Amino acid sequence: MIGDLFARMRRGDRNALSRLLSHIARGEFLDDIRSLLIPSPQTPSARVIAFTGSGGMGKSTLIGRLIPLVRAANHRIAVLACDPQSPLSGGALLGDRFRMGSTSDDGVFIRSLAALSGSSGLAKHLDLMIDALEAFGFDVIFLETVGAGQGDVAVGQHADALVLLLQPESGDDVQWEKAGVLECADVIVIHKADLPTADQTMAQVRAALDLSPSRHIPVLRVSTKLNQGHAELWQTLESLPARRLRPSIAQRLLHHLIESQEQSLHKLETQANPELAKLLADWQAGTLTIAAAARCLGALLLTSYEPEA
Ligand SMILES: Nc1nc2c(ncn2[C@@H]2O[C@H](COP(=O)(O)OP(=O)(O)O)[C@@H](O)[C@H]2O)c(=O)[nH]1
Ligand SMILES: [Mg+2]
Question: Domains in the chain, please, with CATH?
Fold first, then answer.
């Protein structure tokens, strides 16, 4: 069934792509999907750009304005918006679609996702979703994530570039300095530059960056309201080097191994497996070193490993 869906997706069926993303978001059929999505050396790599910043900074609006520029440069673009609310509640999904502009262009694909709970502001299995969008043929992928702090660092691992949006008068200045988010950003956008205190915010950001001059980070003023600064922003993004680390085939396999072994361990624990209990007791009593105990655990898990049907 996933095989069928995948074949349809490969033929350019957007519905199939949507359904595949829904399965990934719900954590379904992950093993099969991972196997089908192993990129070959010929799979072209998409440029993945993450936009982050607190809610209300204008991320969705800005992305909506960048899409036509990306299309004009002949790229096919997908947007994954990680929302703090579940898209099932409707509001976030419709809101973002609306702000990004509705489109009948099949070189554009926009999808809202529920963010994981916790501070990361990221949807689960984002890497797999990016693989799916790449396999479909999108060569630019925008990620919209909410929040400042750890999540911004985390999203950086999935992206070639991290764009941090700040806005005048947000009172966020202390927060972003503390979280060290400035240093993670590849580009800083002072958005809503039409607001009166934009110059002050710009000066504050520059001063903060001067304190750590190890890296040159472009700071751009953009006003979506006045339609200013988008071309410069896209030019800057296009010129940044690719950075995203894609896991090797061996790392993908390791990832699968770890996930499957966690499931096996959970099963042994819930069944109160006697061999596991003895092993743990021996280790606690000091008759086994941690290395020996880990080896025994590995052997036990591998013998109880049952691949998903
Ligand atoms: N003054 C001003 N307001 C803007 C600008 N861009 C977006 N906004 C407004 O900011 C609000 C939040 O925008 P949204 O894109 O939903 O922000 P997000 O939560 O970061 O995705 C909306 O009311 C927008 O109309 C801008 O350039 N200038
Ligand atoms: Mg938004």
Answer: 1-38 (no CATH), 43-239 (3.40.50.300), 249-303 (no CATH)
